[in-house]
Zeta-carotene desaturase (Salvia splendens), 371 residues
Amino acid sequence: MQQKDITMACKVSRFCGVCLFFLVFGANIARGQDGETRRAMVPALFIFGDSLIDNGNNNDLPSFAKANYFPYGIDFNGGPTGRFSNGYTMVDTIAELLGLPLIPPYSQASGDQIRYGVNYASAAAGILDDTGRNFVSRIPFNQQIKNFESSLEQIKSSSGAQDVSKDLAKSIFFVGMGSNDYLNNYLMPNYDTKDHYNPQQFADLLVQQYSQQLTNLYNLGARKFVIGGIGLMGCIPSILAQSSNGVCSDEVNQLVQPFNFNTKTMVNNLITTKPGSVFTYIDIGNMFQDLISNAGSYGFSVLNEGCCGIGKNSGQITCLPFQTPCPDRSKYIFWDAFHPTEAVNVLFGHKAFNGSSNFAYPFSIQQLANF
């Protein structure tokens, strides 16, 4: 089956496949809408990151970084939720492939919901606490980790510390951070970061703190980590809008390379220094390079414009409320000026879950789940 057929099959399966789950943390039992019972691959999925995987944590914040209005969610069952997409995010696809329900945002999760995982991601958030202040309110990675601690206390109070420790060690922790530390910090004119750090120094600063933050999660019981790299940021519509010829910015793409290189090195170091831990690195940059180079074979024909009214010469950042998007979202790589369409998110979710080592190193998420 060709990759674009897999993508379409996955999208269809969202509506006709497993849609309703009953899952208890540690029991791993999920029931599909058709009544079929199956076992989830892991007890839970805990998600940390930014707007690429935020699913509603910014909705009630005094923030400019929100997506809880139409046309966001136009293809999502239930409409706008806070996802910066027309439908699924990458982690939504991964959750379903793991046999889990869609993971609820921290801002809405309570009671038994937190037993199968929580999404702590926040639009405009970064590794550095100061990142994204231009959007006013957001939840930096450090605070996301504190929010996980709060969830952990709730789980322990109902399940017991020993049981939680065993299940946490089997659960997957997906972390995708770093994009905003460039887009909404280093590259912003109202930040003086670039005056103090060259690109390599900034990457060193980020990954030094990143490593400590992941160590904090490890100390809280996390053992299986999925770390997402930064994509080809020089090819997103918001960067293309600053170009006179509409060509990807090599300067911006080169800017983030030291971070991705350092992150891969960090993953290898953590594997050797954290007993019992298993890490895998998702090469989002390589996924985007493959997608752009082979767009036609994947079924995409519009590479440099957002479906949601974002032309390549537009400085618009997010979709305007009730704006009419393009009619055929499946042809577009980008949904708005920063974020990919559901079609791309589903494709990347599959590549992360069971793709080759070119996209997931040294293990796919499927292999990681089976450890």
